[in-house]
Predict the 3D structure of the following.
Amino acid sequence: MIKIDFLPDKKNIKVNEGTTILEALERAGINIDTPCGGKGICGKCKVLFVEEISAASPIEKKLLSEGEIKKGFRLACQAKLFQDSIVEIPLEIKLDFKRVFSSNSKGDIHRTKNNFSIESNLKKVFLDLEEPSLDDQRSDWERIKDGLSSKKIENISNLKTSVEILKKIPVLMREANFKITVILYNNEIIDIENGETTTSNYGIAFDIGTTTVAGYLIDLESGEELFAVAKTNPQIIHGDDVISRIGFAQQSKGGLEKLQKEIVVTLNEIIRETTQKAEIDKSNIYETVIVGNTCMHHLFLGLNPINLAPSPYIPVIKEILSLKVKDIPGLSLNPTANIYMLPNISAFVGADILAGILSTSMWRQDKTVLFVDLGTNGEVVLGSKGELWACSTAAGPAFEGSRISSGMRAAEGAIDKVKIDNKSIIYKVIEDGKVRGICGSGLIDLIAELLKLGLINKSGKLIDREEGNFELSEEIKRRITKEKEGNRFLLAKSDETIIGKPIYLTQKDIREVQLAKAAVYAGIKILLKEVNILPEDIQEILLAGAFGNFIDKKSAVRIGLIPNLPLKKIESVGNAAGRGAEITLCSNKLRELSQEISKKVKYIELSSRPDFQEEFIKAMIF
Amino acid sequence: MIKIDFLPDKKNIKVNEGTTILEALERAGINIDTPCGGKGICGKCKVLFVEEISAASPIEKKLLSEGEIKKGFRLACQAKLFQDSIVEIPLEIKLDFKRVFSSNSKGDIHRTKNNFSIESNLKKVFLDLEEPSLDDQRSDWERIKDGLSSKKIENISNLKTSVEILKKIPVLMREANFKITVILYNNEIIDIENGETTTSNYGIAFDIGTTTVAGYLIDLESGEELFAVAKTNPQIIHGDDVISRIGFAQQSKGGLEKLQKEIVVTLNEIIRETTQKAEIDKSNIYETVIVGNTCMHHLFLGLNPINLAPSPYIPVIKEILSLKVKDIPGLSLNPTANIYMLPNISAFVGADILAGILSTSMWRQDKTVLFVDLGTNGEVVLGSKGELWACSTAAGPAFEGSRISSGMRAAEGAIDKVKIDNKSIIYKVIEDGKVRGICGSGLIDLIAELLKLGLINKSGKLIDREEGNFELSEEIKRRITKEKEGNRFLLAKSDETIIGKPIYLTQKDIREVQLAKAAVYAGIKILLKEVNILPEDIQEILLAGAFGNFIDKKSAVRIGLIPNLPLKKIESVGNAAGRGAEITLCSNKLRELSQEISKKVKYIELSSRPDFQEEFIKAMIF
């Protein structure tokens, strides 16, 4: 065994010789960003050997510069440890989100409250039962049943329960002196509790994203959101996107079980944190709604996602699913509590998008509404006169900072807003302080500003310094420099950044954004074609997802990511998926409706559309 | 650790010092009869130290004779081991049944076939599905659903399944080239199989008795019994009767889990043996019906039986229960297969009795029928004009050989029939060979014969030799000898027995039988009173249970165990409970009816009847 010290955390761990740094980090509980899933492709997981540098592998030699190798930089996924070492993890690859996910604030909840009423099939009934005697030898079960009957509870002739509850009954009933609270779900007893507990009635909604898992603890009596918590999806160490996760499930022994366990552990942490903060007993959580993309849906259930990825993209199940906590190994809630998995629309348009449709009410609006959710994929839904169309565009993870030279997620140190006037650049950094990189919204702002100044032309070329607008100050022009791979634009100087190196926008970065925005826009065009309307016929655009929250609408229009509508008709709807999960948690009617609505959505498979390629090329133009 | 050798098995085992012989035997897998459950009360678990005799404890000194102690006899439950020893286990206390349980032969099945038709909610449907493509992106689940729809299967709009099956679907469907067999139970898919398997459709019925567990493997297509196997209930080491089991569940740490596990292990053995013999795959067993007394019902489910035993005798649940194999930890059947627990009638009249009522059709007969099941308890059911009454009598285990000086179960070496004429005694021994003891049917025969000869008088006294009938031969008279505790009758001489000791019927034995038969008869009288009829109004008596199979009807009438009816009106119905389980396995209609019938049975609690004591005393007279 050898000992590895990690800086700046000052954590250390003992591992076997030959362990990779990535494996060691995982075991030490330090999460880093590995966009390619540790396959030695992206070269993002750079770490610095402070003591005892290991030899660079051919892959490292290819992906790192000579200078980096000399300084002691290695790739965490490649470098193996053979002796005691000290390794520093650069801040920009560490995963510790602070701001990615906003809770649905009280304001939001009140807004959604108008859209639905709390309606649950769950009832808590207090029973003060008679004690048994030789003249009254009813079984415990009959006693409870008759008690419910006397409270005029309907539908109990065919009352059901589970073995778990039957096991609980004889002892608990007597401990409680025959004063118990029965938790009824339809005609099933899902729990019994000692004494009168009818007012403690909670639910928890989860939005399981590829990157982030969010949980919302809800008081089912009032519909109020008590606490919300977001966590990084720990599966991220197996890769940034669903394709890497599917690959991991397929190729690693026990991979599927591991991926399921990783989600479950995260949900358990969220359950613990939210219930502790709200000071409630998690045994009083009886209902759970879960949304997520189709891959996360499958992984949470332990369903093999193998057929989601290669054409023709087939999910195991899309329909709404109702199950019990005990069906999910390790999930630390009441084993008889209900879990509802909202329906998926297709292999790449998941229940999270359906939840977005539900929370924005676009399914029942007459007007023409375009819903765009930008994450690792770009899902687009078009609603018109009560009809719905959807597609998934392979936007790629550029907007999440991947494949961008200084890209990062919208976390501490990321530039998330950029303004350039004639003379100077103004940018905003998340959590203020020094710069670590640029996130999606900053990138769109920057490109939009450079387009406005004419420094990027219609074809996406970052022009040469001397070609630039005559009125432009030298201060700005001088930021353009020539490189082998094309021009690049200096966004932040060395002294403005944490790592002490300047941050650039490269020609390649612009190409990545062009590809991404073209994919989204071409998807939108195909949907418009299906409905036989033009972009200008759209009456409202809803931008969803964490990214949609922070994006500058004007910039998004300027780079051609979304159709050119008056800005007041473009709205950020924030975490629509999470809110959709919350409202379906509170309303069984909406839950039932969700199945109907999901069936109504006409899914358009872009890969089978010969006209998609044409639209895609057209949309490349800025 | 010390080493113990067991004779005659020649098994040895290493145990810690201070281990009792009973514990060592249990670990060595040798089962012995411990009627009191190893509490040092009954003195039945006599074993012989061949080498290194341990000191006799006060309890052993009380329960064993001085001669026995000198020879090296000790009680397995009391004697602790402190050095390497050799211990011989006398044959008469070893448990290895050969004959206790008869299978329901083909003849029986054909007879019952007339009473019901095979009717199942279970369907096997073969589907030859189309492969998915970009033009047909239905999920695996939709594909199956549509396949069923095209076969005109009803009720699938709300088709359900479990996570287990969803996990299986994506891989199996493709391995099977989309040719699968779906197992449907109502509107639920409980399994899918590769290829066409529609004709493999099996069920297994279990009768879990306090002493014996029987299993019947049934072809659900033909209704034929393929194989039947009976095993000793391994819980027997914790005591002969349900009261000891309840005590064990209550007092031992993890006792309830242990008792459940013991039943499950036995069912697994039966499943293995029957499926191997029938050469079928146990994954093709989709339905299970379980009957048993209420205590066994609770223990199988892992329900705490603690309230069954002290007054007012309250079961957790009496109603029919439908569950899944996966609800029972360790049960080795298809986890999604159905288990039906037939309903109980009361704490001491279980689903086994209800199964008896079903298999004898007495629930739908107009005539007055008395059903008597004699085991550890004596359960009595009276049917008259479609109405049913039931009670449980504390007959005690005398008829199973317990508390009888030379009593034993109806196993190899037991005298099970006795005839005495003027001059000689003729008896029959199970499996022939030498005598080990006397079982219930032999005991009843013997007492009936002695009553006939006037050697036992009306009050139950075994008279003195000289008081005997003048015509009786000296050969018979001489068998009566005087002892401190009263007279005794010599049944088998030393040279006729395996243990080389004579076998007697003692005055105390007669008292035990008197108490038992009085309890049963008084129960019968109370039921007759409820219906307001006389014993002579009974039109038919059905004797059920293993014991009912072997009892001599004439003897049973003579000792006053059952009312004095013409013999042709008394019928042995054998293992009515097992047959009831079989027919409810084959017929869902009968299963549904079972709930109704159990509700119709009016249970009479004898302990709350002031007139019971009076009837009991009257019934003591022979």
